[in-house]
Amino acid sequence: MTGTGPNIPIIDFGPFMSGFYGDRKLVAERMRKASTDWGFFYLANCGMAADSLTQAFMASRQFFALPLAEKNLVAWQNAESNRGYVGVKRERLDPARPGDLKEAFNLAPEEPGAGVPKNRWPQGHPGFRKVMTHFLDDCINTADRVLEAFALALQQPADFFVRAHDKHHHTLRLLHYPPLPEGFEPADGESRAGAHTDYGSITLLFQDDVGGLEVRTRAGEWLRAVPIPGTVVVNTGDLMHRWTNQIFCSTPHRVNVAPECRHLDRYSIAFFCHPNKDAEIVCISSCVGEHQPALYPPTTAGQHLQEKLTNTYGT
Predict the structure, then answer these.
(1) Which pathway does UniProt place it in (predicted)?
(2) Domain containing 140: what range?
(3) The domain that contains 74 carries what CATH number?
(4) What are phi and psi of 84, to 5 degrees?
(5) How many domains does the chain have?
(6) Residue 2, H or E segment
(7) What pTM does this model have?
(8) In the list 20, 151, 206, 312, which could disulfide-bond 269, CB 3.0-4.6 Å?
(9) Could you give the angle at the alpha carbon of 151 between the alpha carbons of 268 and 275, nearest 5°?
(10) pLDDT tens profile 230-248
(11) Cα–chain-centroid distance for residue 295?
């Protein structure tokens, strides 16, 4: 069942950016409630320049318009790298369902040193690399501010989460959901993106105006997360779920094949904020107590991500 209400919270991040403690604390408390009740919220006034987002979407459309043979020259190769082009149906976000009706391109901050994975940039398109590198930096800056707010909400030092993410082991993912052919009928369980939770700490999701994202409520209803101009969708992932002892929930979501938009191209950009691979994920002290014992054993962020990607791609 899919509905349109109740409403996913919309939070104005401007007061947190202003630097006044009382305002920052109020915003942090709202983010905590939204992350506990929903695991999702819309963030307005996050400080990202509108033209940076516009250029990123334009560059994404240009990449996906390239011939398939050219995109396959930079194809995704393995979970260790997790970079490059992912073809339609190559990925199964819900392992029990058919491959997703989408294509994607993954990139990440590039680290110096021999043997370190590098981005698989398409040759002959230097503008694409420049735009995406700039947008990736914007996403990192925004995510760090969100992580500061989460730390305040959980009574931790301001840099608690930022320090655990300072090696920038993040992934930026461009997504294209091609229009479905006239008369196309999805196979059993087939969708644009199967139901799943995200793997890392937080995700920043930028949508075009087509829509299709659906979020599962605590009651089990699928609710449409309609695009709201000037906002970014923020959700908490599996590692934040573990870190906070389920205080911040990792909520299942999907991209459905809605009848009214099945003939349209849909584009989105997701920034998956992931802790340093060697970061130990242990329940935060303020999230455990006499009547709230730790529910998960310690793990490392790298081990967790490797397991999740292996399940997704079957490699």
Answers:
(1) Alkene biosynthesis; ethylene biosynthesis via 2-oxoglutarate
(2) 2-313
(3) 2.60.120.330
(4) 110, -170
(5) 1
(6) strand 2-3
(7) 0.91
(8) 206
(9) 55
(10) 999 999 999 999 999 999 9
(11) 24
